[in-house]
Amino acid sequence: YPLDALPLEEGKEYAWQVEALDELGRPITSGRRSSEIWVFRYGAEEAEDEPRIAEGALPDPLTLVPGVARLTDLGGADVRETDFGYQIDGRLTLEIFGPFEAETEVEAEGLQVDGATLEEGQDGPEFVAGRVSGRLDAEAVPESQRGPFVELTDVEFTPGTLLTLGGSLTLPGAPEREMEGRVRVGLGGLGG
Questions:
Q1: What is the domain count for the chain?
Q2: What is the residue-averaged pLDDT of the chain?
């Protein structure tokens, strides 16, 4: 943090991002890439005995993609209130119920929910940052949806890409290859 910048205030939440520069202040990464945006609260630490989740603060299950997937077992994760909503970190269960059915343990990392979208009359939670990721049983996606040469073994959710699957492709007579892209999971099936 620059010494000549405004002082941080106790108990306030701040966001930061890192960009690598050389000694002349020029970006050293291609495409001026920066890190993810991280959030922290300055000074005031939460009490150890404080509950990790306020009673009824987040619905459990929590809709991830309407008509497609939801998160359950939020009580086992670290859920904290932020200035804008809630942040979820830790182990959860992901239930996919359309276009196929699967259940797997996933890890939430900085998954931020806009608190205003949880209010009555809203369409459901809106996620603004973070990710959810985990492994998927190779047989979870029926062959009729993935094809005979594709094996989908990992699942990921980010606010920008929503729910996607990754895996490998094995063509007859060729070695197995990791898929470079990801398959999107939506109400209409798999695509991408």
A1: 2
A2: 85
